[in-house]
Amino acid sequence: RGAGGQRGCIAGIDVVHLPLAVLLTSSPLIAAAIYPLLVLTQAIPKVALAPILVVVLGTSELPRVVVTFLVAFFPLVLSIASGLILGGIILVLQAVLQPGHEPFRP
């Protein structure tokens, strides 16, 4: 049961969070369009949304999965986007500060 949750989390990062974070960091115009929608997902209280999801989706595991996804969505996207931005800055600083050396590549 625990391994399935981990696979779901990894699949969620691969399918939703990572591409969205790449979009956010790729263009200021795209970031200006997507970021308000991300903030909107955080404006809705999850405690208020949970009973609505149970009524709409039933009493199976699906409402729990959806609430968990919504709770983790915003922090994961922003963390991945920050890592992408910071990683790029670190590579540039390494290349500039150490001329003649190959920049670190993970």
How is the topology of this model organized?
Elements (H helix, E strand, L loop, with lengths): L1 H25 L1 H16 L2 H12 L4 H36 L9
- The shape is elongated
- The count of helical stretches stands at 4
User: What distance lies between the first and last C-alpha atoms, to the nearest angstrom?
Assistant: 32 Å
- Whole-number average pLDDT? 76
Whole-angstrom Rg = 18 Å
Sketch the topology as an H/E string, one letter per element: HHHH
Total beta-strand segments: 0
Word description of this protein:
The protein has 4 helices and no strands. The protein is mainly α. The protein is elongated. The two termini are 32 Å apart.
Task: List the defining traits of the structure above.
0% strand, mainly alpha, 106 residues, single chain
Précis, in short:
The chain is mostly helical. Helices cover 84% and strands 0% of the residues.
